[in-house]
Design goal:
- This protein folds into two domains: 250 residues, 3-Layer(aba) Sandwich (Aminopeptidase), CATH 3.40.630.10; 91 residues.
- It is globular and about 55 Å long.
- It has eleven helices and 17 strands.
- The protein is 31% helix and 27% strand.
Length: 356
């Protein structure tokens, strides 16, 4: 374990630091500022837009990476009343029912009881108090999870509340609320290793809006691309299923096919580097055949930032996804193997740094 961690101990330091910075969906500004400071300090040009932080190295066309930086959390909506932030009424307009999160959130209510949470000021990030989730239930009228929190009765409506989180490393596994601070840490680490291309950090992916901020940037500059690489985590039901591959790719999602040369390039490089990979859409199609044979309803192929962006741009902005397989989706104990993260970093270094 010690030898496995040594090559990217610097990455783990970045991840530990970023995990402790709250970034509830819809209240990501303090996290944007933390990222901006990290990148400014190493000489990377950064520009902050609504819902988007753009980083540019000395050769911006060298690559295009993207990662959403919002995480699930709560929003105070009344006296000692808190709702799941991503599924607030004002956010649901971009949720169309085909994301994995939307299909599973009704089943995860029990995960949150006794969870420690922290409130923060949505612009400065100032700490506003610590509490514990005392009760959580599903409100059918509001179609959302509602929480009662002990210790935060003083908060005003609109205050974001993040899950208290730290990185755990044990038996070759990393655990925390990894989606998607893990990918943000990967990008910062790559810049420290010499990445010279462009990176996008997007807000509100968990409420289905992040693609809009990316699309606006491309239209602002009249740009198009077929080489956007979106980094993320990919949920699996158990460790056995997750450990069948180091990384996860996609041919498509529920919104669009990913028509990009990047997919085949990544496949070829995986074979060269002996990195095990699979395609999530193929996995889901096989699982759906099993579900149909057992009389159950099919699951969606999932709705991703890449698919939404491809569909909305009419294919002028496309690329593919690169994900690591995890378990414990959307909890503070989402888990990934150290080996998977190491393989992702190895692959990205070969693609964007060693080959330059």
């Amino acid at each position: 374990m010690r030898n496995t961690l040594k090559p990217f101990r610097g990455f783990l330091d970045i991840l530990k630091h970023l995990i402790r910075r709250p970034s509830v969906v819809g209240a990501e500004h303090p996290f944007f500022l933390s990222l901006k400071r990290e990148l400014d300090e190493i000489g990377i040009k950064t520009t902050l837009y609504e819902g988007l932080l753009v980083a540019e190295g000395s050769d911006p066309d060298r690559g295009m990476l993207s990662a959403h930086i919002d995480r699930h959390g709560l929003i105070c909506t009344g006296p000692n009343e808190f709702q799941y932030a991503a599924f607030m009424t004002q956010n649901r307009g971009d949720l169309t029912g085909d994301s994995i999160a939307e299909q599973t959130y009704m089943a995860i209510v029990e995960r949150f009881k006794q969870q420690s949470v922290q409130a923060y000021e949505p612009w400065s990030g100032s700490y506003l108090g610590l509490g514990t989730i005392d009760n959580a239930y599903i409100c059918e009228r509001r179609k959302n999870l509602v929480f009662e929190v002990k210790g935060l009765e003083h908060l005003l409506p609109g205050t974001p509340v993040a899950f208290v989180d730290t990185l755990s490393s044990k038996n070759g596994l990393l655990s925390a609320q990894l989606d998607n601070v893990l990918s943000a840490a990967v990008i910062v680490y790559l810049y420290r290793c010499g990445y010279k291309g462009t990176a996008f950090f997007t807000a509100q992916e968990e409420s289905g809006k992040s693609w809009r901020f990316l699309l606006e940037w491309f239209r602002r500059l009249d740009k198009s691309t077929d080489r956007l690489l979106v980094l993320d985590t990919s949920p699996y039901p158990n460790r056995e299923e997750a450990e069948r591959q180091h990384i996860v790719l996609r041919h498509r999602d529920a919104n669009a096919k990913f028509d990009s040369p990047l997919t085949k390039e990544i496949e070829k490089l995986c074979r060269k580097l002996k990195i095990d990979y699979s395609f999530k859409d193929s996995y889901l199609k096989i699982e759906n055949k099993k579900r149909v044979s057992e009389g159950m309803k099919k699951n969606s192929l999932g709705s991703t930032e890449m698919g939404r962006l491809t569909a909305a741009s009419g294919g002028t902005i496309t690329g593919t996804t690169l994900q690591v397989p995890t378990t414990g989706y959307h909890t503070t104990s989402e888990t990934v193997s150290v080996e998977s993260v190491a393989k992702m970093l190895e692959l990205l270094k070969h693609m964007y740094i060693d080959a330059s």
